[in-house]
């Protein structure tokens, strides 16, 4: 196993999956509400369901936390327009790298052509980690539709991550 190639393929897959997820969420929100939520990062921080239910965005909250702890102040709207998507893409790329390493080590990880991976990221990140980290309101009474939107978006992330990872890994030899 070539770990560097596996990780690189996973990062590229994760970034592509993050982009696809963001686009998917924007389409879902346009269909459900007739418009996309107006986050600082536009559709590229992919927290549409959260903005629709809480008027908040975990990527913006994390970007503000990072800024407060590193530069000692909150970001303005223009800075947040860059930082919130950067947080989302950094997370998607990092998780993609870990997936790339795991997928190369064990064929079972690739089960479902990325759907199992996407579902696992949804459970781990959206359903468990975000509320525990205070990046989402744990008391929020999200509708079934909002859970379905987040779940479906993560399936898109998983599928695209796997398809791109596999293509890049093959190209890398």
Question: Would you write up a description of this structure?
Answer:
The protein is globular. Helix 3 (58-70) packs across helix 4 and helix 5 packs across helix 6. The chain has six helices and no strands. The chain has helices spanning 3-33, 48-54, 58-70, 77-105, 115-132, 144-172. The model has no long low-confidence stretch (mean pLDDT 88). The protein has one domain (3-172). The chain is mainly α and 173 residues long.
Helices and strands, with pairings:
Blueprint: H1 3-33, H2 48-54, H3 58-70, H4 77-105, H5 115-132, H6 144-172
Helix pairs in contact: 1-4, 1-6, 2-6, 3-4, 5-6
Summarize the structure.
With 173 residues, the chain is mainly alpha-helical.
